Amino acid sequence: MSDFSSTRTTADFVQPATGASVTVSVGSSTWMTIGSPLFVQGGGQYFIRSLPSGTQVQLTNAADAGNTAAGTTIAAGALLTPGGGGGLAGWIASLALNSLGGRITGDINIPLAPMYNADLTSGRIAMHTAAGGAVGPVGDYWMIGNFTNTGNTGCLFTVPLGGFSRSATLTEVRARIYPFPATGTAMPTVMPRLDVYTTDSSGNGLLIGTVTDASANKAAYETDHELIVTGLTQVVGVRSIFATLSTGQGTLISGTKILGMTAVLG
Fold first, then answer.
1. pTM, to two decimals
2. Which residue segments constitute the domains of the chain, with CATH numbers given?
């Protein structure tokens, strides 16, 4: 999208069903990009499926929980601005666009739904809730590791990277973390790591990218920061892709908050 990033509808339109599309008349659509998220005042979150003209945009309902019910008339004059379109709603909309022949590129938020493993069942992966309890499924962030500051032997948080437009290329994966404070000046003996895998022709895991936390000291480590795997060239839709975040390990090292993951598609 260009720097000119807002406009208004010039005619009423009816809210489509989840995953369905509608053509909307607007003041200008020249700043918009196919596949980008868009917010419509009174309607909610959408993805841009096509741009029929300089004053029209075809929108796909992104299934966001806050979207207006299907069949509702959105009156002319509604403001359109770039939308968030991330998380589960963005993932669902990506599936819908893919089935309709669309294609999403750019930054896509990855739903933090960890795959089943021993760490998940042992409680070393937990969802923090607003009340402070380590119970799910609804909460404000995921936690991995030992949360009592008595040491970590390492555990894995693995999520599938799916719902992307077929034939797009995965170029980058980012994980935003916030390690819990550790005792004294302790630093991990093994630093957190982000790995990205696909599968080989036999279905076995194949590492395609990795990065290790390069925090130089305790102050840099125990803050909100990102691990970024770059240089990926994996084509989506050929084989499964998943990302694994390993928590830091050490005698006096506590757990790690996972604040979000993002995939970048080309």
1. 0.60
2. 7-104 (2.40.30), 108-265 (2.60.120.260)
